Amino acid sequence: MTALARHGLNLAAGLALLFMLAPLLLVVVFSFGSSDVMTFPIPGLTVDWYRKLFARTEFWGALRSTAIVSLSVALAATVIGSMAAVVISRMRPKPAAASTLLFGLPMMMPPLVLALALLSAFAVAGVKLSLLTVILAHLTFTMPFVILIVAARLRDFDYTVLDSARDLGASPLTTFLTVTFPIIRPTLLGAALMSMALSLDDFVITFFMLGGGNTLPTLVWGMLRTGLDPSINALGTLILAFTLGTSAIALWLTRFRG
Predict the structure, then answer these.
(1) Burial (0-12, 13-18, 19+ Cβ within 10 Å), 68
(2) Can you name the residues that pair with 45 across neighbouring β-strands?
(3) What is the C-alpha separation between 23 and 87, in angstroms, rounded?
(4) Model confidence over 112-149: pLDDT tens digits?
(5) Sequence spans of domains, the chain
(6) Whole-structure pTM value
(7) At what angle do helices 216-226 and 181-201 cross, to 10 degrees?
(8) Which CATH class is domain 75-215+241-253?
(9) How far apart are CA 19 and CA 141, in angstroms?
(10) Which of 209, 242, 219, 230 is nearest to 59 (CA)?
(11) What share of the chain is helix, strand, coil (3-state, %, to 5)?
(12) Distance CA 220, CA 58 (A)
């Protein structure tokens, strides 16, 4: 490859990266702008838009609902997904591949189609829409990520250490708590943080499943419908920071496995 072609590829990659990151950077920049008109040049910097956001009572209600949903999803998806990953890791290659494909179908479906399917299922079952339906719906697309992450870790797991513990008289529970869990604990924590970030970031499925009230993504939607001011950018910046932070910690803990 010539130097000119290499520079051309680097330029194209840089422009593509700028195209993807520029809108996110603008959200962060305008959240600190002193003007209520989101245009350049910015007259000054301020945190008044964050104060205005924190003064809204609906923000704290949405934050509470989001915390309930994301924490519940993280815990349930990690527990159930880890158990499924343990079973899959013990299967033969072909059944394991088929099981992984079946578990991963919700992850590959468009969110709108998945939301409509879940809404129909809850309507047929007579389940009233609430935070519980949001949690159950989020589990359908977060568990596949947990399964893939944990299964990737278990694929390289040395099961001889478990056999040694059992030979020394340890019970299955003691073996799990003293041998298995300490080894895969960073992976489980990373999978939990990843599922939490995915749950926090979802809007489409939450919008269909939420019977009343708001989560942070639906609050953003509601604020956009009534007007556009930099306090929306402040809320978007907070969501972005939490999502990127949890995802980065999750990738670091899992050592980019899965």
Answers:
(1) middle
(2) 33
(3) 42
(4) 889 999 999 998 888 888 889 999 999 999 998 888 88
(5) 75-215+241-253
(6) 0.80
(7) 20
(8) mainly alpha
(9) 28
(10) 219
(11) 80, 0, 20
(12) 11
